[in-house]
Design brief:
This protein is mainly alpha-helical and about 160 residues long. It has helices spanning about 1-25, 30-40, 50-55, 65-85, 115-125, 140-145, 145-155. It has 3 domains: about 1-40; about 50-85; about 100-155, no CATH class. The chain is built from 7 helices and no strands.
Length: about 160
Amino acid sequence: FNFRNRLNQEIKRVKTDYFKERILNSAGNTKMFWNTVNEFSGVRKKREHFPINYFIRDLVNTGVGVETVANSFNTFFSKVGSELAKELPVSVSPPLVDDSTHRVVGPEFRLTPVSDSQVEECVKGKRGGLAPGIDNFLVVLLKNKISNLILPLKH
């Protein structure tokens, strides 16, 4: 009994060390990192192709062909997006900023000026911890220094 417990503890330790080492070695390689995470969590790799035989095995004696089944799948899944879109409620809320006085019809493109309070309200409404831009500038930094950044953000 004691030997079994000790063996299980040793196996657990070796397994932990193995996955720690794999994660450390995957630094900078996201594919290797996620392969390690998936291996650790027991996620199986995706099948290479759609298993249509699984769905048609019960249809062998019905005379329905593979092509008919495939076309039925295509028809069904091609309508999923439009059917879901029909179920979404239509929003009739007013726009966040009324810029109707600045709109120009034609080939001209103009940016609508915004106020300091609009910029501040927009930045403070963002969730913290995000770094949405290519510069990885955290939103929390924008929020903390918004008074210094309003002018550059407006121009």
